[in-house]
From TrEMBL:
Alphabetical GO biological process terms: branched-chain amino acid catabolic process
Protein name, UniProt field: 2-oxoisovalerate dehydrogenase subunit alpha
Catalytic activity of the protein: N(6)-[(R)-lipoyl]-L-lysyl-[protein] + 3-methyl-2-oxobutanoate + H(+) = N(6)-[(R)-S(8)-2-methylpropanoyldihydrolipoyl]-L-lysyl-[protein] + CO2
Enzyme kind, highest EC tier: oxidoreductase
Domain Dehydrogenase E1 component stretches: 89-390
Amino acid sequence: MLRAARICPRLARHHAQWRSVTTSSSIQTPHGHLPSTQSPIISELKFFNSVTGDGTQIPTYRVLDGGGKPIEGAQVPELDEAVARRMYEQMVQLPTIDNLMYQVQRQGKIPFYMTHYGEEATLIGSAAALALDDEVLAQYRELGILLWRDWPIDALMNSCFGNCEDIASKGKQMPMHIGSAAHHFHMISSPLATQIPQAAGVGFALKRDPARRGKNCAVVYFGEGAASEGDFHAGMMFASTIPSPTLFIARNNGFAISTPASEQYYGDGIAARGPGYGVHTIRVDGNDVLAMYNATKEARRLCIEEGRGVLLEAMSYRVGHHSTSDDSFAYRGRQEVEDRKRLDNPLSRFRLFLESRGWWSASDEEELRSRLKKDVLAAYRRAETLPRPPVSEMFDTVYGGEEPWTITENREELKRLLKKYGQTWGPWQAELQKHKGAGQDLMGS
C-alpha cells in the first residue's frame, strides 16, 4: 500500500509562491511558465520547425505588382516626382554601366567585373531610404548605393582600371572592390562575409559616439550564400545582445555562385533566422523598389530607436552571371533567365508605375538612355588613357601608423632592382612606361 508523501512545509510555501509568479503573466497556462522566462509549460510532446505558428512560410512584403500597380492595401510612399524619377534613373544607370564594363573585361582591358542585373530595385530602393551618412559595409554588388550618394562614375572607372586617379586604393584593389570614406562606404574586401561582424562593431561604435548616437546606424549588405558563413551568426549575435544599431540586408538572389538557394539551407530562407536572435525581421520583394524603400526606412527607424540589430531579406533573382569569371548557364537554363527578365523585371515594373502617374514617357526614356550611355563612355575613355599610379605608391597606405620594417625593406629592394635593370631590360622598361613617372620616383630617390 502506497502512503502519501509528506511535503516539507517550507518547500510547500516555496512551491506555492513559484506557482503564483509563473501564472501571473498575461499568457495563462495550466502549468505556468519557466521561472526565468515567459515560455509556457505544456504537457504535450510537440516539435516545431517554423517561426510561424501554423507552419507556413514567412510572408513577403510588396507594394507594386508586376504591372507597376499598387496591390490592395499597400501604402505607397510619399515620394515627389523628382525623387521618384531619380530613383528610376539610378536603376537604369546600373545596367548601362554593366553592359559596357562587361564588354571591356571580355576585351581584356580590365581583369574582373561584377554586374547588378536584376537587383537594381534592391539597391536603389534601400539606398534612397538610408541617411547619406549611415555607415555602409558592402559585399561586392552594391555599386548602386555609392551612385545614389553621388559618387562619380569617373571614380568607378579609375578603380576598375587601377590608374593614377584611383583615390581609394591607388591601384591595389581588384575591380569592384570599391570604397569611399567621404561617402561613408567602407572598402570592400574579397573574403566572404567578413563585413558582417565588422558592421556590428561599427554600429556599436556609432552607439558610443555622442554626436552620432540615435542618429545613424551601420548597414551591411550580403548575399544569402554569405549567410552560411559563421561570420553571419557572429554579427547577428553581437548586434542583438551587446546590442548595436546594425541593419542587416540579405540579398537573396537565388544563387551563391553556382549553388542554388534550394541547396544552401533547409529552413525558410534567411529571414527565419532573425527571430532566433530576437531581432525585428522582414522579408521583402527585392524587385519592388517601393517595397524596398518602405521596408528599409522602417527597419532603419527601429534599428536606431532601439539600438539593436534588424534583419531584412530582399528576395530577388540574379539575372547576370555571378561575375566575369562565371558562366551561369552551366548550372541553370537560358530560358529560366529569360523568363525571369520578362516576368519580374524591376525596371519595367517601376517604369510602368511612373508612367501611370504621368511622371515618365517614351521620350524621357530615350533621352535618359542616350545621356547615360554618353556619360559612361566618356568616363571609360578618360580612365583608359590614364597611367598607373607612381611605382612608389605601391608601398603607401598599406598599414596605418608607423611603417613596418618589412615595407621599408621591400621598397629599398625594388629601388635597387629598378636602378640595375629598369633602364636596360626590355620587359621592365615596357612595364615602367605604364606607370606615372616611369619609376623615376623610386629610381631617382
